[in-house]
Amino acid sequence: MNEKQRSILLDSSSRFPPPPGVKLSYGTAGFRADATILQSTVFRVGILAALRSLKTQSVIGLMITASHNKVSDNGVKIADPSGGMLTQAWEPFADALANVPDSLHLVQLVDDFVMKENIPLEVVQSAVILLGRDTRPSGESLLEAAKQGISSIVGAVAVDMGVLTTPQLHWMVRFRNKGMKATEMDYFNQLSNSFRCLIDLIPPGSSVNVMDKLIVDGANGVGGEKLQVLKKVLHGLDIQIRNSGKEGVLNDEVGADYVQKEKVVPRGFAPADAGMRCASLDGDADRLVYFSAIQNSNNRIRLVDGDKILSLFALFIKEQLSILNDNEGDRETNSYPATLGVVQTAYANGASTDYLKHLGLEVVFTPTGVKYLHEKAAEYDIGIYFEANGHGTILLSEGLLQWLDGRSSEPSLTSKGSEQQKAALRLLAVSKLINPAVGDALSGLLLVEAILQHMGWSIHRWNELYHDLPSRQLKVKVVERSAVVTANAETVVVRPLGIQEAINAETAKYPRGRCFVRPSGTEDVVRVYAEASTEEAADNLANSVAQLVDQFLGFRSS
Ligand SMILES: CC(=O)N[C@H]1[C@@H](OP(=O)(O)O)O[C@H](CO)[C@@H](O)[C@@H]1O
Ligand SMILES: [Mg+2]
């Protein structure tokens, strides 16, 4: 940096001192904390976004959200040029920048990083950062801090895109970098057009018209608002939106995280909704789960989680691929040896993994966090990934898309040919409907709805694909959660020594028992997951392992 650049940065960063005694980490999904302590962090992430844009010579996204966390929290994360998560290679710099104690050290840190990464600051360059935020009340002032951070790097320009879902911002970044128009209206039009295309390709005879209405819990967040807009350009779907944010509190006993973890009906639903097809979005609309309330059951639900969405998508895609590859007696037709893989984490219900393997699919596991799942899924021609909590998407390779394009426009003289053409068109429509940058509750919801109509299935038929093993998740507060070190996609604890043996001994007591612990990347807790053949057994296993965690790492009085 030259003297002028240094002094601008020094001056602006001295106006954003970090809160004393707070150490933040980029974590599973960016920085998150109580909103009152985040001004300096968001300012500094603004600097990072500007540097990233200069380095990559591309548009970068900066999203202010704390997703499913409580309304008083907030957070910030970066979307890379592809629309995906910030490259993991820059996470250590993000941590160092967020925690550097004063502006003198900050300027030094930035200067060193600029040199190390060879970031072109000296030539007049322009960097463009798209800013988005969810509906949290703290969002506006944090957005201002981000703008200040961005403008403290000479040549960087912030473009405020307003209130958005997280996936909308990722989508905009991706398509801006492909030189395409990527306004919010383009997003809605693409979703509704590709949904319509899938509906138009439904084979005659499927029970398209018997689908009753879908009720959506908007978590009192941005998702409900945006779905309202999407509804206006959509045809062929009867949607009723609850918890749209006009009255209730964001994520307060509503939303996908609450529904999935507590397995109860969110607020805003009435006994008359029992049995209906319902969906729930999280606070920034990147997660989606379905459910139906059980009549007279104390608010209990039948949960149709991310694993089942994954299974539905996998079935549909597999069906289209087998239509396309059915070349028996027809040597003229070219086929494409498309690889299809599904990616899960240790939180996936064991019954879902068994089911997917039974379908003959390749199932692989990664640690928790979309950045890991996405990377793995990108290794296949079609990679489908989902976390059990409902965050996931489908990635299709460029090679396959080109081949599908060719197949869909070939003249078809036989009925098999025309079926194959339709299968190609369906997969192309899926690729346009689904968000290729990141999991997206709105596009995911439209794909689920299109596939249910294609199959002629109710939510109950879908839920019957397999039966979830009973499971329980608990959180344990410990002195230092980073003392828990895991291996093998987080299924084994290697530190503290001895705890894994104790967990194994406990798990062995339960038929179909499976249990693991890991430190959360978004909350100051250690998470415990347990699964077993009955609910009581899953609860007991989770409780006894939570006690083990407490014994090994908890707050014990001496
Ligand atoms: C068990 C669970 O749901 N974990 C969530 C949660 O991460 P933790 O690191 O477990 O706090 O938030 C992440 C970001 O949204 C999400 O990717 C992940 O799946
Ligand atoms: Mg979210």
From TrEMBL:
It comes from the Eukaryota. The keyword Isomerase applies. Residues 57-89, 126-175 form the Alpha-D-phosphohexomutase alpha/beta/alpha domain. Binds 1 Mg(2+) ion per subunit. Its EC number is 5.4.2.3. Mg(2+) binds at residues 67, 282, 284, 286. GO terms for molecular function: metal ion binding; phosphoacetylglucosamine mutase activity. Substrate binds at residues 387-389, 518-522, 527. Residues 182-289, 305-457 form the Phosphoacetylglucosamine mutase AMG1 domain. The active site is at 67 (phosphoserine intermediate). Pfam families: AMG1_II, AMG1_III, PGM_PMM_I, PGM_PMM_IV. Residues 475-547 form the Alpha-D-phosphohexomutase C-terminal domain. It is an enzyme of class 5 (isomerase). One of its GO terms (biological process) is UDP-N-acetylglucosamine biosynthetic process. Its cofactor is Mg(2+). Belongs to the phosphohexose mutase family. This is Phosphoacetylglucosamine mutase. The lineage of its organism: Eukaryota, Viridiplantae, Streptophyta, Embryophyta, Tracheophyta.
